Amino acid sequence: MMWKMTGIVVLLLAVLLINLMLWRFAMPVYVNRRISRFQNELVNRHYDEVETMYRTMRGAAARGAFSL
């Protein structure tokens, strides 16, 4: 009976150790990749919006919308 409990305790400690190792080493890599992906999408979206505004304003200027 005592051996069973010792085995269970060792198994739980191993699971806890693996969990801590994953949080310590794997999680920062995962979080950095997600942040990088989000920032790239954000910059690309901003670039597209600025380019759209530029082309809209340029087209309006070419049509004479801003002439007095």
Tell me about this structure.
0% of the residues are buried. The chain has one helix at 2-62. The model has no long low-confidence stretch (mean pLDDT 90). It has 68 residues and is an all-alpha fold.
Overall form: rod-shaped
The fraction of residues assigned to DSSP E strands is under 5%
Average of the residue pLDDT scores: 90
Which class of secondary structure composition applies to the elements? mainly alpha
Helix percent band: over 70%
SS elements, strand count: 0
Radius of gyration from the alpha-carbon trace, in angstroms: 28 Å
Q: What's the SSE pattern?
A: H
Low-confidence region ranges: none
| Helix segment tally | 1
Cα distance spanning the termini? 95 Å
Largest sheet: none
What secondary-structure arrangement, pairings included, does this model have?
Blueprint: H1 2-62
Quick structural overview:
By secondary structure, the chain is mostly helical.
Descriptive key words:
mainly alpha, 68 residues
